[in-house]
Amino acid sequence: MAVIRLGLIGCGYICKTHLKALKKLNDPSIEVTALVDINKEAAESTKQLLPAPQNCQVYGSVEEAGDDSYDAAVIMVPHHLHVEIAREVLSKGKHVLLEKPLAISIEGCRELLALAQSTNRVFMVAESAVHWPEVVQAIKLIKEGVIGEPYYAQGNCFESIGIDDFDFCEVPDWIYDPEKNGGGAVMAGGVHWIRPLRLMLGDMDKVAAMTMDAWKTMRAETLAHALVKFKNGKQGVLHFHYSDIPMEKIPFFQIFGPKGEITIHGKFEGGITVHTKDKVTTDNCGGYWGSFKPQMASFISALKKEEKITEAHTGSVSEAVKDVLVSLAIYRSVEEEKWENVDVF
């Protein structure tokens, strides 16, 4: 495949971030040839961000884009459309990078997992947290034994929506709609905190959670707190909080071991501190926004090799399923007011 023709499906706020990553890669073998959005004005606006010269067409739907306008697609539509659009694009024989979360239901996860297992196309899930430079560094330090075998970790997803993270456009309205988002803060951004804790401590076994609808703009939970038991006996906490007011910065992650503690700073611009008995070291590895370039590079590499994404790959559908199962277990725990098993599939 001399030139890979890329279609961007969904031209909202996250599309701009993926486009920035593509520009940073500066790979001449990648050409954006299709922009698809039900709002053609959004697609036309995105087209203006493409480097010139470019041969890119705007379409109002995947059906309108047809079968020969792109070879691979980055799907960035509202969560409730993930299954439908991924199914349609894969049925056309295209490669897919699908934004997180994989789906908002167990049934949706089952369908996409079956598609991933049956297709010979590249089907990767865009869970950027696995490429988050500070998370990658923390995992490396844990493997090196810098803090010993970790026994406890906490993840804090505290976001002042529209103030300190959505810095390039309005927050899309569907984020506030639980029918389209799949819930509230847990599905909107919390899944980005679930995967790092799984990578650092292992797969999760049970959760006990409570939530609160404290900010009425978001018509679902804006505050969620979950105790986590891991399959290996370790423990942790997940804490998600969305609001529209400025909030004091607290660490995004803290990982504790017998020899020390690792803190990933509570700011998207980055920062990590390692505490041991002998010293304290602080570094900035690139921040959350630094995760999108290596993520896109991983997808492009798979396209060039035409390699099937296996369970061992960070972008595998099977790993994305596990993240969704944790989210759904949190919601069940709130409803049932008890500990819930994660592996309900």
General description of the model:
By secondary structure, this protein is α/β, with parallel strands linked by helices. The chain has two domains: 4-128, Rossmann fold (3-Layer(aba) Sandwich); 130-288 and 325-341, Dihydrodipicolinate Reductase, domain 2 (2-Layer Sandwich). It has helices spanning 13-25, 40-47, 62-65, 82-91, 106-118, 133-143, 178-181, 185-201, 292-305, 317-336, and strands at 4-9, 30-36, 57-59, 72-75, 95-99, 123-126, 152-160, 204-212, 223-230, 235-243, 253-257, 260-264, 272-276, 280-283, 340-341. It has a nine-stranded mixed sheet with strand order 14-13-12-11-7-10-9-8-15. It has a six-stranded parallel sheet with strand order 3-2-1-4-5-6, with helices on both faces. Helix 5 (106-118) links the parallel strand 5 (95-99) and strand 6 (123-126). Helix 1 (13-25) packs across helix 9, helix 5 (106-118) runs antiparallel to helix 10 (317-336) and helix 8 (185-201) crosses helix 10 (317-336). The longest helix is centred in the last third of the chain and has 20 residues, at 317-336. It is globular and about 55 Å long. InterPro entries: Gfo/Idh/MocA-like_OxRdtase_N, Gfo/Idh/MocA_Oxidoreductases, GFO_IDH_MocA-like_dom, NAD(P)-bd_dom_sf. Pfam families: GFO_IDH_MocA, GFO_IDH_MocA_C3. Belongs to the Gfo/Idh/MocA family. GO terms for molecular function: nucleotide binding.
Predict the CATH topology of the largest domain: Dihydrodipicolinate Reductase, domain 2
Query: Which CATH top level class of the largest domain fits?
Result: Alpha Beta
What is the first-to-last residue Cα distance?
Answer: 38 Å
Mean pLDDT: 94
Q: How large is the radius of gyration? A: 20 Å
Low-pLDDT sequence parts: none
Overall CATH architecture of the largest domain = 2-Layer Sandwich
Strand content: 15-25%
Strand arrangement in the largest pleated sheet: 14-13-12-11-7-10-9-8-15
Q: What percentage of residues falls in helices of 4 or more residues?
A: 25-40%
InterPro entries: Gfo/Idh/MocA-like_OxRdtase_N (IPR000683), Gfo/Idh/MocA_Oxidoreductases (IPR051450), GFO_IDH_MocA-like_dom (IPR055170), NAD(P)-bd_dom_sf (IPR036291)
Family: Belongs to the Gfo/Idh/MocA family.
Organism: Amphimedon queenslandica
Protein name: Gfo/Idh/MocA-like oxidoreductase N-terminal domain-containing protein
